[in-house]
Every structure is written in C-alpha cells, then in structure tokens.
Amino acid sequence: MNVRRRLIPAALASALGLGALTACSSDSAATGNTDKFDVVASFYPMAFLAEQIGGDHANVTSLTEPGQEPHDLEISTQQRAQLEEADAALYLKGLQPAVDEAVSQTGIKTKIDAATLTHLEDHGTGGHSHEGEEGHSEETSPEEEEHARDPHVWLDPVKYAEIAQGVGKAFEKADPDHAADYKKNTEALVKKLNGLNSDFENGLKNTKTKVFFTNHAAFGYLAERYGLTQEAISGMDPESEPSAARVKELQQEARADGVTTVFYETLVSDKTAKTLARDAKLKTDVLDPLEGITDKSRGDDYFQVMESNLKALRTALGAK
C-alpha cells in the first residue's frame, strides 16, 4: 500500500461518534466490559452480520473506522486489548493481514473466520486473463494460493447468506442462553439476502452488455453470480496503479464490448477511473464495494447500498 492512515483509538472514535455503526454499537468503546455478548468485527460487512444476528444480545465494535479503507488497517495496542476482552472475533482472513495476525495472537475463545464459512475463489483482475499479469504456475504454494483468493464474498448475496448461517451457528454455540434468538435473527437475515439475490437475478437478466469496468477487482463474485464480466483497472489492491498496456487494453475492450461506464468507489481515489473514462469517452458512476459506510454512501446499510449498486449496474449495462 502506498497510503497508510493512522488509526484513531477506539475510545476516541466512539467519543467522536465514529465508532457507532448502529444503536447496537453506539456505546461500545468498552468492549468486553458489558453484560452482553461482546463481538469485535474486522470491518463493516462483518460488523453488519454480527449486529443483524446478535440483535439486542450483542455489543458489536468494528476495528475499521467508518471511512477508512479496510486494506490499510493497522491494529493499535488498545484494539489488541479489546480483542483479548471480547467474547468473539468475527473477521475475514486474507483481506486485512493486520487483523489476521492480531486475532491469531489473542487468547479469545471464539474466533470466527468468515472465509471458512463459504468457498473462496481466484478471480484475478476480471473475467479474462491479461497479458503481462502473473499467472499460477504448477509450483504455486498453498500459502500463495490462499493470498490469490478473492476475499470480497459479501458482494454475492448467496455467499453472504452462507456466511451468515455459519456466524449464526457460532453465536448459538458461544452464547447458548440466547441461541433461539440468534437462530431466528439468522433466518430473517438469510431471507432478506435471498430476496436481494432475486432482485439482482431479475434486474440483470436482460442487458445490452455483460461487461463492466471497476476501479479494483472487488466484484468477481457478483459478476460470476449474475453472468457478468468484471474488468478491473487495478487488481485486488484498490490503490495499485495500472500499467499503460492495461489502460490501452481496457480502452479497446470498451469499444468492442459496448461498455458505457467506468465505476469508481467512495473510499479510494477516483482519479484513475476518471482518467480512463475521459480518454475512452465513457461515463463514470459509483459501484460501492461496501467495505465501509460513510456519508458518501448511497444508502445507510448493506441492503440499501446493494440496491443502489443494482440500479447503477442496470443503467450502465443497458438493462431492459
């Protein structure tokens, strides 16, 4: 990463109102010191699951501040202490190395790795292989293979529902006194996610083009689920710079596949996306990878932002 942001200590973030994701977590500076089921989540998609499933019984805090690009996260001493005091940690291994390390070093009893609750795949930078990109040789080690897998599973409602079911079971086991409520909340969340999946299926069934351009390769699972092709300017790292050859390739593909729009996102610079769009005479719009909710987000929670994403995709792809 070229950019590293200093993390605001959780207590200060809470005092400033930055630590509050919902009413459930607004008073959550003292993780581990409440009479609720204390959950430390790595970033927004995990915190949203914990809040939806935990309901009134859970006290949820997020290690990633609203507005912070999650890939940049560094763990403070205070946050390590929060992890030690929590009843459970919910994270997605492979997305935030600092979190993976911190969780592995704590004695927390319940460690829930969302990556183990569904199947992760390698999507590269898009739907095709590109000349000049590193491929997988026969000598690729298991460790390298793990790093190659795409962690952005929450953007596929079906896979996110699979994770939700696993989280629900983990909560039931860790806090059996409230197991019935966790089960009920999980079922309600999965039902909503199934409805969202239906919205995307129906909304993207008939489109003029199936190809869309994004700032970084966050939408591989979504594209695969709904028969689309994602072409990313950058790779998995949203702040990496594309090569001149890659930019030229995208310009040519835009003409060949009838691409109308270059999508950018709210948490990282839109400079590269807008430059490509200007040079290729394309429009720009926001497609939110939902790594965090801010005042720039097109919606207040996961479902609202995903519906906004669907609307943006329908417009860009020429949905009928």
Count the strands? Answer: 8
Count helical runs.
11
Helix content: 40-55%
- Major beta sheet summary: 4 strands, parallel
DSSP strand content: 5-15%
What pattern of helices and strands is seen along the backbone?
HEHEHEHEHHHEHEHEHEH
How far do the termini sit from each other?
40 Å
List the helices and strands and how they pair.
Blueprint: H1 10-15, E1 37-41, H2 44-54, E2 58-62, H3 77-85, E3 88-91, H4 97-105, E4 110-113, H5 142-148, H6 157-174, H7 179-203, E5 211-214, H8 220-225, E6 229-232, H9 244-257, E7 261-264, H10 271-280, E8 283-286, H11 302-317
Parallel strand pairs: 1-2, 1-3, 3-4, 5-6, 7-8
Helix pairs in contact: 2-6, 6-7, 7-11
Output the keywords.
41% helix, two-stranded parallel sheet, disordered N terminus, 320 residues, alpha/beta, four-stranded parallel sheet
Task: Please provide a written account of the structure.
With 320 residues, the protein is α/β, with parallel strands linked by helices. Helices cover 41% and strands 11% of the residues. It has helices at residues 10-15, 44-54, 77-85, 97-105, 142-148, 157-174, 179-203, 220-225, 244-257, 271-280, 302-317; strands at residues 37-41, 58-62, 88-91, 110-113, 211-214, 229-232, 261-264, 283-286. The strands form 3 sheets. A 4-stranded parallel beta sheet has the order 2-1-3-4, with helices on both faces. Helix 8 links the parallel strand 5 and strand 6 (229-232). Helix 2 packs across helix 6 (157-174), helix 6 packs antiparallel against helix 7 and helix 7 packs parallel to helix 11. The longest helix has 25 residues, at 179-203. It is globular, with a radius of gyration of 20 Å. The model is unreliable at 1-30 and 127-146 (pLDDT under 50).
